[in-house]
Each structure stands twice: as structure tokens, then as C-alpha cells.
Amino acid sequence: MQAVILAAGEGKRVRPLTRSRPKALLPVANRPIIGYVIEALLKNGIRDIVVVVGYRKEQVIRFLNELDVPITVVVQDKQLGTAHALNCAKSHITGDFLLLPGDNYIDPHSLGRIKDIRNVMLIKEHPSPSNFGVVLLKDGLVNRIIEKPEHSPSFMVSTGIFSLTPDFFSCISGNNITDAVSSMLASGEHLQAVVADDWQDAIYPWDLLKMNMRLLKDLPEAREGSISRQAIIHGPVSIGKGSIIGPNTVITGPVIIGEDCEIGPNCCIMPNTSLGSRVKTEPFTFIEKSLIMDDTSIGSHSRIVETVTGKGCRLADHTSISSSASLMNIEDEVIKPEFGAVLGDQVTAGPFTIFSNCIVGNNVTIEGGSRIISRILPDESKVI
Fold this sequence. Notes:
Blueprint: E1 2-7, E2 27-28, E3 31-32, H1 33-43, E4 48-53, H2 57-65, E5 71-75, H3 82-88, E6 97-101, E7 104-106, H4 108-114, E8 120-125, E9 133-138, E10 141-147, E11 156-164, H5 177-186, E12 192-195, E13 199-201, H6 207-216, E14 222-223, E15 226-227, E16 232-234, E17 237-239, E18 244-245, E19 250-252, E20 255-257, E21 262-263, E22 268-269, E23 273-275, E24 280-281, E25 286-288, E26 291-292, E27 297-298, E28 303-305, E29 307-309, E30 314-315, E31 320-321, E32 324-325, E33 328-330, E34 333-335, E35 338-339, E36 341-343, E37 348-349, E38 354-356, E39 358-360, E40 365-366, E41 371-373, E42 376-377, E43 382-383
Parallel strand pairs: 1-4, 1-6, 4-5, 8-12, 14-17, 15-18, 16-19, 17-20, 18-21, 19-22, 20-23, 21-24, 22-25, 23-26, 24-27, 25-28, 26-29, 27-30, 28-31, 29-36, 30-37, 31-38, 36-39, 37-40, 38-41, 39-42, 40-43
Antiparallel strand pairs: 2-3, 6-11, 7-13, 8-11, 9-10, 32-35, 33-34
Helix pairs in contact: 3-5
């Protein structure tokens, strides 16, 4: 059995986090999303893996080269669509294969249920079906797929994960997998539907918080850093090599802390939080339900809630980030999300800055005392 992982896209709706990295490499629970996909395949004994890369391909190739399993890499020179990406891998396909997106989490058990079945799609209910291909079923078979309908007739959506035969390539005439599936159904071929046990996608950057929460549930405990005797640790907590946990710091799992971090003293790290490597939190800082990427520093007396930060952010003392909801226009879609903040790479904010329900682009500089509430700040902005 072979597997084809599509990891060529950018993920425009996850900007600003994908300006400097493809969506498949976004770290969730301190690990790139595509790493979970490959792990699910390996747990099912599938080692013949083809990965289609495109946007920021060098980064994906570098990650794949660090793995212990050999990966065949195919380059999609222009990101023309999912079916086009699959077609790029056609010459490497010798038999039945699994097709998976590289930027979605799927549990190994669900893959195990479809790997030995020909022509099957994994499906799952989703509260926002209009962001996906909505699946209509008849007698356990896929009857029709409606791509991102404005008014969805069902909550059941395609996960983008299939078990297919090489005959599927004859159904590809355009650039979209959904069109190819529709062509397959129109030819009279059957496509079975199997409900996935667990599947996670991040359509928007704040969706990473939900994915992070899910993946932290399976967090293995590790205490490899230097932990003060006065620190208090509850629940599943993983602390990487070289990290220092100061006195009177309280950490309540599930929490993962990367390598060479400096936490505390007198900090509070609450559940469902991921801190990347070389993260520094100064005293009396509170962090909860957040995903903080590498090389970020957070000043003293700060409160960070439901936040995603890119790499290298510098948040000064008394930074406050709280969750709220408001209307936003993302890629011409009007939505009303509830979260604290999404900060791109290298965001710098001065003391006493307040964030709430906002998206801040890469390399943005914000003077102290600013209120950034329910706004989208483009890359390279300066708030005075």
C-alpha cells in the first residue's frame, strides 16, 4: 500500500502564520502537522510514502529529510489545485493508495479502517460545513459532493482522505479533487463512505487552538529540564531539555514546553498550552489555552489567553490578551470568531498593550499602551 500526502499549498486563510511557512509545517503541540499524518501512516505499516511539495518546498523537504523513514518527494511547480498536485505524483503510483492532506490531523485507527478497502472516503461531521466539500450519502455510499456551499444541506463533510485505485487518475480532468470525485461518481463507480473517529483541520489560524487542545490529550510526560523544588506541576506536562522552571511557578497540564525555555519564577501556565523552544516568560505571567511558537518572549505581569503567536515575538511587560468575538472578513468571507489574538512572526509590542480578537501581521511594531481590539493589522505595520 502506498500513500500520497499533499503538502504543496500555502493555506491563505491561515495567514499571517503561513507567510513564512506552509500550513503543513505549522507546529501544533510543538510538532508540524504533517508529522502526525506520517506517524498515522507508519502505525498502519505504510512506509511507501510520496509527498507533493510546492509552496516553501525547501522547508518541507528539510523536515522530511530529518525523518527516519525514506520519503519520495514530488514538486508541484505551480499550486493549481489538489487534483493537479495528485497528478504530479502519478508516475510514482504502482497500485492502490491512500490520499491525504498534509495539513490535517487524522488518527491512525481511522486510516486502519480504510486502508484495505478500495474506493472509500473518510467523512466527518463538522459544525461549519460550508468551509468544506459537503457529502450527501445514499445507502452508505457517496451520492454527491457539494464544494463549499453557501447553505449546506448537511453537516457531513469530506476529510480529503481517500483510499483509491490507479483508475482514479482517469477521472482527473481539472485541478480539484472534488471535481474528479464527481466525475468518478458520474461514471457509475461507487465510493464508500466511512466516518472518521478523529479528524482535525485548521481553516483559520485560531482553529489551531482547538487542534492543539486535541493533540495535547495524548501528550507523553517528560521532565528533562531543570525544575525548581518550589515549582508545582499537575497533570501531564512535558518539559524539554535545557528548559528552566523557576520557583513558585505553577504548571497545570496538559502543557508542553520545548527546549531551552525560561519559565518564571512566579508564573502560571494553565492547561492546553504549548510553548515552543527558547520561549521566555518573565515573572508573574499567566498563559492559558495558547500556542506560543519558538523564540518568543513575554514580559512580566502579562496575561495571555487563547492566543497563537508566530516565531520571535517580543511582548513587553503587562501585555494583556483576552478572548472576545466580532465580525471579520477573511479572504472575502465574513465570519464571527471568538479568540484572543493571532500574532505573526516577529511582532513587537510595548508595555501595557491590550489585544482582543485581533490578527496582527508579521513584523508589526506596536508602541506601549496601545489597544488592538477586533482589528486586522497587515504585515510591516507600525502602531504609534
